[in-house]
Amino acid sequence: MANPTDKAILFDASKCTGCRACQVACKNWNQRGYTETHNEGTYENPRQLTAQCWMRILFNEPEERPKSDDEIYWYFTKYQCMHCTDATCVKVCPSGATKKHKVTDGDSEAYVVKTDPKQCIGCNYCVATCPFQACRYDEKEKGVFRCVLCLDRISQDPAAFPTPEQASPDLEKNAKDPYPTRNRPACVQTCTSGALSFGTREEMLAKAKERVEFLKKEKGKEKARVYGEDELGGLHYIYVLEDSPDKYGLPEKPTVPAGVTIWETLIKPGAPWGGLALVGLVAAAGVGYVINKRNEGLERQAKGGGE
Length: 307
Ligand code: SF4
Ligand code: SF4
Ligand code: SF4
Hints:
Number of strands: 10
Strand content: 15-25%
Shape: globular
Radius of gyration: 20 Å
Oligomer: single chain
CATH architecture of the largest domain: 2-Layer Sandwich
Largest sheet: 4 strands, mixed
Number of domains: 2
Bound molecules: iron/sulfur cluster
CATH topology of the largest domain: Alpha-Beta Plaits
Strand order of the largest sheet: 8-1-10-9
């Protein structure tokens, strides 16, 4: 299970206005370029994650509107790599390029899944098997890209930055914030509606649960729930949802497919049981699964399909 002191981002869908400032901030801070897009009758842009766009805001339109027919309604979702504790991409990577990175900052740790482009062999297994379809391979840059939880920002010594009072003496909200202004992920720093927060998993989960209680009791949102607490061993993005995950374009129960576990245990270079003839048949099933998924993923990307 995820460590309670790991850093995490909380996305509160009930506060998001769909302004996409976080999406722009992510591109800006990580110096990602533009991609040519076309209006496809939706505010979502681009329509899928790319090596240039590591997170995007989904505008999910419900079939049955929770409000009156003449009111437009969306379920907004901040969509990117979830930094899963049981990360499929780490399990399948045959070269060791995709790893979990831990950076200790005082009594808490950053837990980030990242790919080293120098070690990446371009097999695309991680891209094809990710339960969230949240990472992308780029042929030009020869590497796999995903949200990196702004590791470069959050791992810097907070002492190097002005205290909240020094940074914004007039802003009461910053004075209450334990994380100095520039030491937070760019997307969190940019959000003005209060939909994004950053802290330890323990803090974010407590905040999320409190909000869910409020939504249920005060707003009549019976289906409100927390997402990310236990999924895939615990995600490092925690969500407050007002309805079921499928309304937000999120899988109800994301899982590591059995084929990936077989692959990791029996076939992957350095696997604990690799090389045993006894497990040949099972191993073949694992290879078949991973390769099939890879081919499906490449086909989907070629057609421009997303999550
Ligand atoms: S969301 Fe996908 S890319 Fe991100 S850690 Fe999980 S498996 Fe890996
Ligand atoms: S944490 Fe950083 S890399 Fe991840 S979505 Fe936010 S701005 Fe982008
Ligand atoms: S900046 Fe905040 S309010 Fe705007 S889209 Fe992102 S999460 Fe939603």
